[in-house]
Each structure stands twice: as C-alpha cells, then as structure tokens.
Specification:
Oligomer: homodimer
Low-confidence stretches of chain A: 562-573
CATH superfamily of the largest domain in chain A: ANL, N-terminal domain
Number of domains of chain A: 2
Largest sheet of chain A: 8 strands, mixed
Number of strands of chain A: 27
Mean pLDDT of chain A: 93
Structural class of chain A: alpha/beta
Radius of gyration of chain A: 24 Å
CATH topology of the largest domain in chain A: Rossmann fold
Helix content of chain A: 25-40%
Amino acid sequence: MHSTMPDVPLTVAHLLRHGYTVHSTSTVATWNGDGFDRRSYAEVGERAARLAHALRGLGVRPGSRPDSEQGVVGTFMRNNARHLELFLAVPAMGAVLHTLNVRMPAAQLAYTVDHAGDEVVFVDADLTEALAPVLERSANAVKHIVVAGRGGRAALAGFSGEVHDYEELIADEPTDYPWEDRLDEHTAASICYTSGTTGKPKGVVYSHRSLYLHCLRVVTPDNYSLSTRDVLFPVAPMFHVQGWGVPHAALLTGADLVLADQFTQPSSLARVIERGRVTFGVAVPTVWSALLEELDTHDYDVTSLRRAFVGGFACPPALMAAYRDRHSIELLHGWGMTETLGMVSAARPPRGADRSEEWVYRVSQGRFPASVEFRLVGSDGDLLPHTGMAVGELQLRGLNVTTAYYGGAASPPARPAQNFTADGWLRTGDVGKITPDGFLILTDRIKDVIKSGGEFISSVELENTLMAHPAVAEAVVVAVPDDRWGERPMAAVSLRHGVDIALEDLRDFLAQRIDGWMVPERWTVVPTVPKTSVGKYDKRGLQDQYADGRLDVVHIDKSPQGVSQTGGGGARH
Amino acid sequence: MHSTMPDVPLTVAHLLRHGYTVHSTSTVATWNGDGFDRRSYAEVGERAARLAHALRGLGVRPGSRPDSEQGVVGTFMRNNARHLELFLAVPAMGAVLHTLNVRMPAAQLAYTVDHAGDEVVFVDADLTEALAPVLERSANAVKHIVVAGRGGRAALAGFSGEVHDYEELIADEPTDYPWEDRLDEHTAASICYTSGTTGKPKGVVYSHRSLYLHCLRVVTPDNYSLSTRDVLFPVAPMFHVQGWGVPHAALLTGADLVLADQFTQPSSLARVIERGRVTFGVAVPTVWSALLEELDTHDYDVTSLRRAFVGGFACPPALMAAYRDRHSIELLHGWGMTETLGMVSAARPPRGADRSEEWVYRVSQGRFPASVEFRLVGSDGDLLPHTGMAVGELQLRGLNVTTAYYGGAASPPARPAQNFTADGWLRTGDVGKITPDGFLILTDRIKDVIKSGGEFISSVELENTLMAHPAVAEAVVVAVPDDRWGERPMAAVSLRHGVDIALEDLRDFLAQRIDGWMVPERWTVVPTVPKTSVGKYDKRGLQDQYADGRLDVVHIDKSPQGVSQTGGGGARH
C-alpha cells in the first residue's frame, strides 16, 4: 500500500526558515566583554541569505545529492553570531560546513583543511595569527579567507589567495535566497574531525537528516528539554560536534541563544549567565568545574540557570552535587562523541525512583534513545549481560552512529578495525557497564584503564573519589610503569584556591573509600590539570611529563609488603 | 561529499523494541471498571511477537517497500492493552493497521473495510453486535474475525469466515519475532479514514517515517512535553488518528500508559485519573467539558494531572479557564486533523509574555512546527497577510501533511479539488487568522460560517462567548435560512446540571459582548448538544432538526427594525 504522506526531506534549510519566520523576534546575543550585541532571527535569516549569495560569488558549489561535488567552507571561529550564520547558511545552500577546532595543533589542522577540501575559510579577526601557520602547512586548496571583525589582517600577509572582510563581502547581497529545502536529506551538511591524541584526525560527515533528527531528539524532555521559553548558552565550542546540537535546537524551538565569543574564562561565563538570564547551558566537566570555583568565591546572580548539561567525558559526581547543593543547578549528565553526532544518552531518573536512587541514576551516563542499538563486549570478544556488574567496551550502531570516517574526495570511506567491528558496530573506546533498566555507567576509556598485576583499576573511579574531597579542585589518575605490577596508578591533583593539604591525608581519604590495592603510591600536585583541545584531561601529556622526570612526585607507601596492592586484594594477585 | 551517517530507517519496530528493552518495566494499565489490568512493556513486546506470528499464520503478508502488497488488519476496538499490541505488532511486522471508527455508521464502515482491503478484523467482545452489520454490508474480503475478551460470539453467527479468540490465537506462538526494522521508512504503517459528514470516508495512509517523526515531535516541550516520568491517558480513541500519537509516544519515552477501555463516561474517566495517578491526557473539548461537570460536582483527587491537551476542534476559552481556576489543570490547546496525522500546532506562549498575554496565546491554536508551511487564502484566492486581522482559509503543505487520499488497491491516490489546491496545498476547511509571530487563531469551519446579509458571522466566537456564561454547559450556533438575510445564526444551549435561566437573559449576556447584528434571534434549549462520531458538535444534525420542525425554538428579537442585525452593523448591510 502506498502511503499518502509526502516525501518531505529533513533539512537544515527548514530549521533556518522556521527560525526566521515563526520565531523572527527571537535573538542571538554575542557577548562583547561589556554587554551583548543582539540580533533577531529575522536578521540572522537575512544575513544568512546575503552570506549564501556571497559564497556563490566566491565559487562555492551547492549540491543536493549525496554524490554531489559540494563546495566545502571552513570556519576557524569562536561562538558568535557570524559563526551561527555560517552554521545555517552553508548547509542550507547545499554546501558543506567544516568547523575547525581552533585548539588543535596547526599540523593536524592543515591536514583536515586539505583532507576536507576547504575552498574558503572564515576566521575571527583575533584568530588569524593562529590560522596563519595552518595555511602555511596546507597544500593550498584554500582560495579565500574571510575575516570576521576588525584587525588581524597582518597575520595573513603570507596567504597567496584572496582575503575578504565578512561585512564587506555580504554588504550588497540580496536578503533572501532560494534555500535548498528539497535536497536529498542524506546529502552532506557538515564535517567534524575528531582530535585523536594518536594518529591523524578522522572526519565524520553529518547529513542534513542526521542533524535534523539529532536536534529533534535533544530538545525532548528526557534529553536537554528545550522550549521556546529558554535562553540557551552553548559554552561548548560550536566547532566541537556542532555545538552539541544547541545552535540548531535554538532555531527549531525559537529559544534565544547567548554566545560568549572569546570571553571563555570563568568570570566571563558567570557574567554572561547573569546578564543573559541564561536558562540552559552545555559544557564539559572541566569547564563546569572552573565555573564552580568562580561562583563559589564571587557574588553572581545565576538564579535563571536551573539546569544544564554536562558531557564530553565523565563528570565527577562531587561536581554535580556541588552545583545542586550550593547553586540549585541540576547538571544533566550524558554521553556522546563526534562519531555519534554528540549527545546520545542522557541520565534522567525513571519515575518512581526515590531521592537516593535518583542520584545513582543522575551520575550514570543515562539511557540510550530509540533506534540506537548498544552492547557491551568483553576483552575476549564475548557479549556481556546488562546486569549492572559486567564491565566491557561499549559498542553502538544505529541512527546517527557513524559507519565510517571520511576518506577524502578521491578515496572510499575508512573503517579502521580499531574503531569498527567486522559486523559494523562502532567501538566507542569507552569501558563500562549497563544496568538491567538500560542505564550506562562508564568506568574508563579503554586506553586509560590501569592494568595492575592482571587486574583493572578504573582511573575514573579514583578521580571521582578524590574530587569528592573538599580541598581538591581537580584530580587525574594515570597509569605509570611499575616493575612489579606492570602498571600502577599515579594521582595528580590540583587544589582549590587558597587551600593546603598534605598528600598523605588525601591518600588516607582515598584508602578509606576504595580497595587498598587500588590506592596509588605516586602522588603529585599540579597548579592545573593539563587539558586537551576539547577540554579533556590530557593523560598522555601527564604520562610524558612523568616519564621525562618533569613532575615532582611524592611516594607514599603504607602497605606492609611495600606495595599497597596486596593489602586489599591479595587473593586477586 | 558522501555522509558517513548510516541510512537507518525510522520504523514502528524501533519504537516497539525500544519500549520492551530499555523501558521493559513500564506498564500499560487497562481499566476494568473496578481496577487496572496491568502489563509491562516487556510483556507487551512478547505478546506483540506472538500476535505477529499468529497473523502470519492467518496469511497476513508483510511488506517492506512502499509498493509492497501488504496485508491489512482492521481493529474495531476501544482503548485497551490488546489494541496497543495490534497498534505496534501490525506495522512492526510490515502489515498495515486499519483502525475502524466504532462510532461511524455501518454503511460507511463497510465501505472503509472494503476500500482498505481488510483481511482480518479484531473486535472487542462487547462490540461484535456493532460490527455484525458492517460485515453484512461489506463485500466479503474479511476472512477472519478475532474476538478480544469473553462473549459476543453470537452476534457473529452470520459471518462466513473464521472466528477466533484473541488469547487462543496467540497462546502457543513464540515470544520473539524478527521485526521489520530495516524496511523502507516510506512503507505504509496504518490507514485512518476521515468521518466526513458528507460523501464517502476518505483514507489517509501513514508511513513508518511519518508516525515516528510525529511521535518525536509531540513529545517535545513546546508540544505535549512527555517524559519517562509521565503517566499518559489517551482519552481520545486510539482509532482516531492513531490516538493522537500518545500510544507511540509512550513506547518512545517509556512513560506509563493508562487506558479506559469501554468506561468512557465522565465518572469513569475521573476515577481512572485518580487511581492511575495520570499526569497527562488528551481529549476533545466536549469530553473535557463533560468531565469538568463531574469534577465540579464530585470529590476526586486529580492532583496528579497538572496538564493535558485539548484538540480535535476549537476549545472554548471558558472551559480552559475553568480547568485552570477550579482544578489547577492547564489545558494545552492545539490543532490538527486526520490529514496531518493529528496534532500540528500547539499553543505554548512565547517567552516574555505577561499573564494576560499568556492567556491570549493559550486560547489560540498555537504555532506550527518546522518543516510545515502554512498560508491563509481569502475567498477570492488571494494570499492574506499574517497580521492577526485578515481572515481566510488555512492551507498547509509539508512534513506529515497528506498530499492525497488513498484510492484503493487498484486506483491511484485521489486529490479532490475540494481538499487540495492545484499547487498541492491541503485545504484544511478551517477559517481563521495568523498573528505576525505565527500563532493560528481559528474562527470557524468553512462550512459552518454563517453568511448573513453578505457578512460572515463566526459560529465559534458566539459559542465561546455563550459558554463563558456560568449557567451554560455547552452551546452550539448554526446557520439557519432567513428570508431577509439569507442566513442567520441559531443558538442551541444545554444548561449546567440543576441550573435554570431564561433564554432572554442569555441573549442579553451575548448582546453585551458582541456586535448587536450578530446576536441570534432564534434560541433553543437542548438536553445535550448532539455530537458526531469523533465528538464534534453535530451541526448538520441540528440544522436538520430545525428544518423538520423538531426543535422547540424561541424567537427573541429586540432590535427596532425587527432584526437585530442592523443594530450594530447597519452600515455593513
């Protein structure tokens, strides 16, 4: 039987048009350090149209089919209104948006520019110095640089192509555009490269359909829960997995959008929340952690913010509890990765859970949505039961779970065995367990698990326990080589501002809460824990510093045998 | 550029599987008049699997492509757990579900059974007597009748095919089934016939994709706003536009589902809400109106119910205000029709609206979602501006707006000019205006508009004003022939229980609130306003009664000219 329903594709053009028509009076506000530069969605629509015309003028080719040779437009930008215009205009005109991670090393960035085939790159004026070495290293596919904002031109003196000013480029263009709202929804809309600590960056290509469905999913009450009454603050960079769906969700719901531009230090974030009357934000745990210190020690009115999302990597329960107890802000915990178009699972407690059960659910990574299959695989390749006890690697397949990495214009998609199983599941690299009622509890990254004497120690568990100590701002635990046990955990902690505590006391705090054989012997205090380009703890960097003898490590060993490992788990070793 | 995202279809099988795995402990509870018969989603999944095997055994053919010759399974059932199993199993196995409107006349029902090509019809035991005349009138395509529940077999003695018992049919089947989760998402999942008051019923065929996307849309905060913590009560029949998306939304979110079966009188609905701790319900205005009378006059604890949806046709603001003021229940107003797969627009006030503005937004029909285009067309065919003033017919196209009616197995889809414009827009038959910020305000059905002396009178406006009077339970205004003005409005009112009031006082109440020339001269009191099979006011029936002289009509004429029309709008006539 033939359905009488129309074949209407799900496209970014629909989100854009919905925003500038039905929600024409909603606004995007960009912080300028002192106040907001505010623009209505009607204006965003007009400027996006002008931008699309200008891009056509620069030779960017639109496409409406998955096999079209579409033009690729790079952005080397922060979270601001112009970046939002590119976010919408580039896919809606049928080209591909490539959001460059401004914190990635230049050599890796140059690789992604060449691999994706960027013809035009947009850059914020204060980032031109960071972009210049990328252009120097790239193989010159880029023909145009468009600078957004004043200044910054000098750094581009060595660029052989044309340099334009954003406002001049779009100034004389028409304010409407025949958006590609009938294109094949499987057509590419954007590409995002993972910032792998090893190997070359790997590109994931999102289709219009996948962006639209992700956006529709994240606004639901069991996920972000966003409505037209919200004021959204994507603290997470827009270059990181499409700003975690928040920019698109703003257009879909008509919620206002608030952006911090280059003002990403905790005091600025607090000010933006206060002045923007923000109702919802998304960020990684380390950003929420830094903001917490600011909120604890200064006087801001952040009462508009009652809920926010924390993801990117596991959030310490102590951080969630601190926000709840001290600022009445509920941090929603979830999980996702570049390969899944951001957020997949979200930790909403089920109906009927009492207060203590609620908390157990909240600190988990949450439940998976419909159309996503998930499984746990043991180190021997066996499927593990979802008992909440068995620990294995999380593997996924289904809606918006990538099946490959982009191979480049002339190559087929890549499916490295390290990332994909032979039967087509994505290997997430995350290790954890799943409860009978479907909640994911991650215990580590595969590469961060500490293999001590044939047993596994979860670095995340030790970190979370340490961070529950009031003196600790951040804690990171990494594997270091050990003659006797192969590997042992080393703890690096940064202390809260103005606090002093003996490492021995922290060691005892930990020993009272976890099995004795897991307690680290090696301890170090760091001013701040080093982070990767997306804000994760840089565990590789810390291991390198240890190997090079650059850390001031204190040995604390209280076990009779000389290593505490046998203390609590003798039978196991 | 090729997307690396997988082509995962959106299917009912995904909703089913998500429900019985991730939300296996959520329940569907069917009221038995005394308590609930409760079943977990895990059991629903197992019983759906058994049902699918049994249907294969009866010869129902699955299909996985839009051009497959799929088997069609009819249901002549109320809202209960077995109907839910059919709702899920039939599409998830690749067959087509045809939900029969149990209140439609037998001749029309027989037409739909033959037109859709039902091979098997499931019927609740107490509805077999109503089904028998349908089968007698049908052209015998039905080979199997499956009776759900005890008794009722005698009425089917004249049926030439096989009669089965639901529980016996599925008893020995396996509890898992290879669901069609990889079918083409444009494949037909279900068919629903409109109960047009004139002409033959017209079938709209919903695809898997359309059901899934509708379900994802209605759970969002600007629409129903449903989460895993809800207890959902679809008072609207499951045979009416897929239960307005509520059954599917329950599986998607893991919310509990509560069903009233045959106990649809107001006292039972109140009891079900109380005992089931219902948090959200959907129903037409006339059902909410009857329930209000029950809640006002009896003592129920309905504190669990804080919000509900009212749609199907325009809800009187006085009814919404009564729920808000007397029971702290927020009725969310919205709009949709069979041709749009139910709910499309929803009246959530925008951010920043003050209390009085909020109310103006709440009583509107709300805003349209992304991917749906809307326009107002004047009687001369001109497009009207969205000023909130210009009144015209609402026309739609886009996601989940049907482009045709089902033509039958051997015929092409039908696109009658009465229902579709030449350029492919759906003519909704609803008349109203649209505000600059995108809110729809309906003033009438095209066929119900009263054309008096060349001017239009909105029957809905008169009804809403009358229903704001405390003595009035329901009011309906219809056009009746008038020698001088062509048509004039006639008001029929039913009074609240135990209340008495002179019609002249009601007439004065109205005259103080609307233009004098619109005030009806003809008045009648009816015990209850007659309703159609989906609960709408039966205006045709009332007009027939008037024409036949079966109504006791009082003439009240206070204008100097003999007809009040010239009193307030002399210049206009």
